[in-house]
Structures are given as C-alpha cells and as structure tokens.
C-alpha cells in the first residue's frame, strides 16, 4: 500500500471507525479523482449499493474530508498527497426535499433538491394572466470550475423521460440532460440503489446504469458498488430478504423468495390484522416513525380510510390535529416536494372558500427536528377521494387573486416582474395539495426510511403487465424502507379483502344520478330496475346505490344467481362473476 493510500485511509478512519473494504476502495478512488481537474474520463461517477451498505457514509466521509484539503491549500500546508491548484467546491443535492434534509443532517453540510440547484425562473418566458399561468425555469449558470463536485442522492428516482407539466416547464424537460448541461465542467456523482424500483414508466434507471448511460451520452462512467452490509446485521430478517432479492436480480434467475418470520420480520394472516397492528403503533407509539405500503392507489385509499376510522373519533372532518398527510404536488413556496410526508400540528377553525374550493391555514411539521415546523395554506378538497384539481379550479383562484389586486394595487397588473412575485407568493394559488399518508404506494415511499413498515402485497401486483423483475424490485423497495421491523401478509390480499370498502358512490345533482368513474369489484346482493321520469334505465343495488347508467339498455345480462360480483370499469359493468377467483 502506497504512502498516499495510507494517508487517505487514515483520513477515512477518522470519520468511519471500521470502514468496509468496499468503502475504503470507493473513498480512495473518488477522493483521488476529486483532486484532479475534470476531464472526460473523470466527469461521471456512479456510487451504488443495495440498502444498508453505507453509500451515505462514504458521501459523508468525502464531504468532511474536502474541507481539510481546502484548508491545506489555502494555508500552504504540506500534505503527503498532491493537492489541487485551487479549493474543491462541493454541491450536495437529492431528488426529494426529504432526502435532501436527511442528507444535510447526516453530513452537516448544506443540501437542497437537484431542481432547486440547477434551475432558476425565466422571467421573460413565463406567462402570467387572468386566464393563463405557466412558469418556465431555465438552467442556472453552469459549473465551469474544474474542481467542483456535484453529488445527487436517491438517483434511482431520476427519470430519463421528458417530463410534461402544463404549468411548470423545467429546462429542456429532461432532467439528466439538464444536469449534464449544468455540471458541464464538474464531477457529477450519482448516488443510489440500483435494485429499487425504476422511475415510473421506465424499465431501467439510466442514472445508475453505466452501460446505458455510456451508450446515450458517450461519457465513460466510473462505477462503484458497495456490497457489504453496514446498517443491518447479517442475521437480520430484513437483510436476509433484501439481499436474497438483490442476488436474484443480479443472477437473472427468477426464483421464489423465501420469507420467514424472525426477530424483525412478522407475518400476518389477514389485512385486518396488519391494519390493527399498524393502528396500535400509531396510538401507543406516536413518536415511532412508521408507515404502510401497498401497490395500487385504490387500495392505499381504502387502507387510509380504514386506519382513520380506527384511529380518529371524528372522520367526517377532512383534517384533524396530528394527522399524517402527503404532499402530492411540488410546492416551491413552502419548498415541499411531491411525496413528502408532513404532520398537521394544528389548524384554524374557519376555512376560506373560493366557490367550491376550501382553503385552511395549518401549522405542520415537515422534518425530524423540533424546529422543522411552519404555517401554510392547504387546499382541503384534495383530501376527498374523488377530487381532481382541474384547470377550471386554477382559473377560479386566478380570478379571485386578480380581482383582489385590482381593488388593492391595480398598478401591479402593469408590472410583469412584480406580478409574478406576487403570484409566486400567493397562499391560495400555492396552497398545498395533500392526500392521507397512513398508507402510501411504494413509489411514494422511495427515498424515505421508517423504523417499522407494514406491507400489504396485492394479488394484482403479481398479475401486472410489468417487466419480469418488477415484483422483486417492488418487494425490495418496500422492505428496505424499514430500519428495524417489517410486517408482511402470509398471502397477497385479494379484492375480497377490501370489498366492504369498495361501495359505488353516487352524486345527486340537478335531478340526475352521476356515477363516479370507478374500476373494480362490487358485491351484489339484490337487484332492482328503476326508471327515471325521462325513461332512462338505472341498475341499482337498492334505491340509493346506482351501479350503472345506460340509456334504454343494460350492457350485461342480469345474472340469475345472486349474490355475485360485478366488475366495473369507468362506471360500466364489464362482467359478472360468481366468485372473485374466476
């Protein structure tokens, strides 16, 4: 071992008491690369590894070592390594706000989301009017310093597809392209777990796949994978399941995964049992970070409804103190990103209405620190199961804001820059859009960690039209969200396990029944044909619950044998089934 390697190892040992061999090799190679100016062969790095192998620990060690090197450069202190010609600049980012805050706390170094770092508002291109609101963000001034380093944590969530949003347009629309443009002369380090779920609608994670990356961008990639466990004991059930899945994915042999109970893995026989356990934790250990993960949004909604009914005295109120909710739309006023989970501390008793939209001021907690609290406005309607925020809703809010400006400060309407600033900071236009977060989907759980995780596997997961390794990656991602304990079902949940909750609701308006666009099974006990005054036929379970609306016809023959199940899609009965397993 050379003197330089010994010295670098000595630096590492001051930060990590007993680094693994993987961590040592990765740290030495990365730090050695950072000491040199950026060239094509040391421009792109991928620091990967399965859960608990110490990726963040290596980043932390690098972040804490670089100031030592910079101090030596500035004070002309001799070191047994060849120092760079100028100090090294470090930019620490993550793909989500929650991950950035966790990284900042861990490394004791300022961190932000990758979007916040590389984009800046384009005043000239953005469109602002009573009937149109579109924000354009351009790429910020690029990093031209050859001794700059850009870390991007949770890179498994970086999409390689062009992202479309009617109201917000970032750079070229492709995040990886924009990262390369921004970090034109920097060393870019993608950090993440290559065995997690890839981004939505993608089969691979480009930012963590060196072969695909080199084929697309023609940059050589220096790839490091940590494989030795650090966070989990080798006897941990979480470790055994996660690494069994990792090895299966690596080998390409799709074999069955053996899941057994042990000290930190518990199996439950039914959905109700696992829900009751989850509720017990929320009631008796309210400070213990815990969550429940399911596959489909439909089941997540059902689980949240069940949990709230057991946990709260009043579920008619959309929001209660101490409720856990998830941000479902990036919010740049409050710096909370899609997928972040927050807790409602308290709220004002009165809400502000703009037509049918209801806004309420709340105080919420967004981080682990006691000081991570803030006051903000929320749009309560988004907590309703069938509410979808539309362009018409936005027009209502814009109309209200512009009328208010017209009365209070009409000169503002003639100053685009000032008007944009006013709209960017308007509490109603930027109200948080939320969903309940007692249960969440696996994609929403990515980037998060909880002490205990309960997982509701669904039969639909195993019959989805996803790639062959999708189920394994889904299970791996869900299981590795847990630090200490995992709760699983012995068998996947079937639609029958939720059938009591899947009632077909209707609205009554202007004398007409309007069905919501529901897809799933409905349990049919009895039948009635009811005819409105207009002569339109309705199929109903009883006089209140309407299953199907068709003008003068019923799409399917009524079954002779009841009870049975109807499978509905977009408000129409597609088929009848005597049993769900048919």
Describe it.
The protein is of the alpha/beta class and 582 residues long. It contains 14 helices and 29 strands. The chain has a 6-stranded parallel sheet with strand order 3-2-7-9-1-10, with helices on both faces. A 5-stranded parallel sheet has the order 11-21-20-12-19.
Produce the secondary structure layout:
Layout (H helix, E strand, L loop, with lengths): L2 H11 L7 H14 L9 E6 L5 H20 L14 E6 L2 H11 L3 E3 H5 E3 L5 E2 L4 E7 L8 E6 L14 E3 L4 H8 L4 E6 L17 H8 L3 E6 L10 H15 L13 E4 L2 H14 L5 E5 L2 H15 L12 E4 L13 E7 L4 E3 L2 E9 L7 E7 L11 H18 L7 H9 L7 E5 L2 E3 H4 L4 E7 L13 H10 L2 E8 L16 E4 L2 E4 L4 E5 L3 E4 L5 E4 L5 E5 L13 E6 L2 E6 L5
Beta-strand percent range: 25-35%
Helix content: 25-40%
Q: Quick one: overall form?
A: globular
Structural class category: alpha/beta
């Amino acid at each position: 071992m050379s003197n330089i390697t010994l010295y670098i190892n000595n630096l590492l040992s001051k930060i990590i008491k007993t680094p693994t061999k993987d961590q040592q090799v990765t740290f030495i190679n990365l730090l050695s690369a950072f000491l040199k100016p950026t060239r094509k062969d040391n421009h792109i790095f991928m620091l990967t590894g399965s859960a608990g192998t110490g990726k963040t620990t290596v980043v932390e060690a690098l972040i804490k070592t670089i100031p030592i090197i910079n101090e030596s450069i500035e004070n002309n202190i001799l070191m047994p390594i060849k120092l760079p010609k100028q100090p090294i600049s470090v930019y620490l980012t993550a793909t989500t706000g929650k991950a950035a805050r966790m990284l900042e706390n861990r490394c004791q170094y300022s961190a932000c989301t990758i979007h916040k770092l590389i984009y800046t508002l384009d005043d000239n291109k953005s469109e602002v009017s009573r009937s149109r609101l579109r924000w354009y963000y351009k790429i910020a001034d690029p990093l031209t310093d050859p001794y700059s380093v850009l870390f991007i944590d949770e890179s498994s969530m970086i999409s390689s597809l062009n992202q479309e949003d009617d109201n917000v347009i970032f750079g070229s629309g492709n995040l990886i392209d924009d990262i390369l443009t921004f970090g034109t002369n920097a060393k870019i380090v993608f950090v993440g777990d290559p065995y997690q779920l890839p981004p939505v609608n993608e089969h691979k994670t480009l930012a963590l796949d060196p072969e695909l990356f080199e084929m697309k961008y023609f940059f050589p990639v220096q790839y490091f994978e940590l494989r030795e466990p650090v966070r989990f004991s080798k006897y941990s059930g979480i470790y055994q399941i996660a690494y069994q899945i990792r090895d299966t994915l690596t080998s390409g042999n799709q074999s069955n995964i053996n899941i057994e109970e042990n000290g930190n893995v518990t199996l439950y026989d039914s959905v109700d049992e696992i829900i009751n356990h989850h509720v017990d934790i929320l009631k008796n250990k309210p400070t213990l970070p815990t969550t429940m993960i399911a596959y489909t949004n439909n089941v997540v909604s059902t689980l949240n409804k069940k949990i709230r009914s057991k946990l709260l005295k009043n579920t008619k109120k959309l929001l209660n103190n101490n409720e856990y909710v998830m941000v479902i739309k990036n919010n740049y006023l409050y710096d909370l990103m899609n997928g972040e989970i927050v807790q409602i501390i308290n709220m004002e008793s009165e809400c502000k209405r703009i037509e049918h939209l209801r806004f309420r001021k709340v105080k919420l907690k967004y981080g682990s620190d006691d000081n991570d609290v803030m006051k903000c406005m929320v749009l309560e309607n988004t907590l309703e199961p069938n509410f979808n925020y539309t362009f018409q809703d936005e027009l209502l809010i814009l109309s209200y804001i512009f009328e208010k400006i017209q009365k209070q400060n009409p000169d503002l309407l003639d100053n685009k820059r000032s008007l944009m600033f006013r709209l960017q900071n308007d509490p109603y236009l930027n109200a948080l859009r939320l969903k309940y977060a007692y249960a969440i989907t696996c994609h929403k759980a990515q980037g998060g960690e909880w002490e205990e995780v309960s997982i509701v596997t669904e039969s639909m997961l195993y019959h989805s039209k996803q790639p062959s390794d999708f189920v394994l990656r889904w299970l791996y991602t869900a299981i590795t969200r847990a630090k200490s304990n995992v709760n699983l079902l012995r068998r996947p949940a079937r639609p029958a396990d939720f059938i009591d909750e899947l009632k077909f609701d209707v609205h009554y308006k202007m004398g007409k029944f309007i069905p919501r666009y529901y897809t799933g099974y409905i349990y049919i006990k009895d039948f009635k044909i009811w005819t409105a005054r207009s002569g339109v036929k309705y199929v109903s379970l009883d006089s209140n619950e309407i299953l199907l609306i068709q003008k003068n016809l019923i799409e399917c023959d009524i079954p002779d044998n009841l009870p049975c199940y109807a499978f509905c899609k977009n408000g129409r009965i597609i088929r009848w089934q005597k049993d769900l397993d048919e």
